[in-house]
């Protein structure tokens, strides 16, 4: 499993969850700390505004240590709409674009898959910001 954090410029951070490891509230808390460090280094402008977090309402995401960390950081959590593919941005936005260059391939190991995902992310960085801007404009969101 991988955890992705992204914005209108592309992917900020990915975290490959080790096999046999569960994403607990503590694990997700640590992910958020690492994400904040990445944002500080690569997207400091995000920290000047109030970052908005959209994550599902799985137990690790709503655990006390996580909600306290989000409050400490001043990050706003967007309410999660009922699950529907047309309402979950990563399902119609990010994941299909990541999967496209890997379609039809078989991977012999998780390492090989992880390398392919990393390559797809690097390719996305070249065109995602322009695509996002056009999509936002066409939907009337601006940016």
Automatic annotation (TrEMBL):
It comes from the Eukaryota. InterPro entries: RNaseH_sf, Transposase-MT_Hybrid. Signal peptide: none annotated. GO terms for molecular function: nucleic acid binding. This is Transposase, type 1. It comes from Popillia japonica (Japanese beetle).
């Amino acid at each position: 499993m991988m955890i992705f954090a992204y914005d209108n410029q592309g992917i900020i951070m990915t975290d490959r969850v080790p096999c046999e490891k569960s994403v607990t509230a503590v694990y997700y808390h640590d992910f958020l700390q690492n994400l904040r460090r990445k944002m500080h280094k690569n997207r400091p402008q995000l920290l000047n505004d109030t970052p908005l977090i959209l994550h599902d309402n799985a137990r690790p995401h709503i655990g006390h240590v996580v909600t306290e960390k989000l409050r400490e950081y001043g990050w706003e959590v967007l309410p999660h709409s009922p699950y529907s593919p047309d309402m979950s941005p990563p399902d119609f936005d990010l994941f299909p674009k990541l999967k496209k260059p890997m379609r039809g391939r078989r991977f012999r190991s998780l390492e090989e898959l992880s390398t392919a995902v990393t390559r797809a992310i690097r390719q996305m960085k070249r065109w995602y910001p322009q695509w996002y801007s056009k999509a936002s404009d066409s939907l009337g969101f601006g940016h």
